[in-house]
Amino acid sequence: MPRVKRGTRAHKRRERILKYTKGFRWGRKSKKRAAKEALLHAWTHAFRGRKEKKRVFRKLWNVKINAQARVEGTTYGKLIAALKKKNISLDRKILATLAAENPAVFKKIVEKAVR
């Protein structure tokens, strides 16, 4: 019976795990057991982080819209209600961008909605 050398599958498995931990600190980038544990945590946080990111950005957009709306003499809540009432469908991301970068256009939108 010929001799069979083993280890290629195990080596590939180790390499695949360690490929994901490139850039991690200390032994978590080079030791298989520590790397596996680190990935379990990292991927859990990454999943949660993608959801969190959406919440954080929406809060930021609301703050930007409110700040510019108050300059125009109204509040965030009144502006959003007026936009819905007039069927002006601009999402918060666009409104925040306009408020920050193009206040003249934002002013026209406020005038169209509120007044």
Describe this structure in words.
The structure is a single chain. The chain has 115 residues and is an all-alpha fold. It has helices spanning 8-20, 32-71, 76-85, 92-101, 103-114. The chain has one domain (8-114): Orthogonal Bundle (c-terminal domain of poly(a) binding protein), CATH 1.10.1900. Helices cover 74% and strands 0% of the residues.
Q: What would you give as the CATH superfamily?
A: Ribosomal protein L20, C-terminal domain
Shape descriptor reads: rod-shaped
Which class best fits the helix and strand makeup? mainly alpha
**CATH topology call:** c-terminal domain of poly(a) binding protein
Helix content: over 70%
> What is the level-2 CATH architecture name?
Orthogonal Bundle
Q: Roughly what is the average pLDDT, rounded to an integer?
A: 95
Query: Which percent range describes the beta-strand content?
Result: under 5%
In short:
The chain is mainly α and 115 residues long.
Topology:
Elements: H1 8-20, H2 32-71, H3 76-85, H4 92-101, H5 103-114
Offer a few descriptive terms:
c-terminal domain of poly(a) binding protein, mainly alpha, rod-shaped, 0% strand, 74% helix, 5 helices, 115 residues
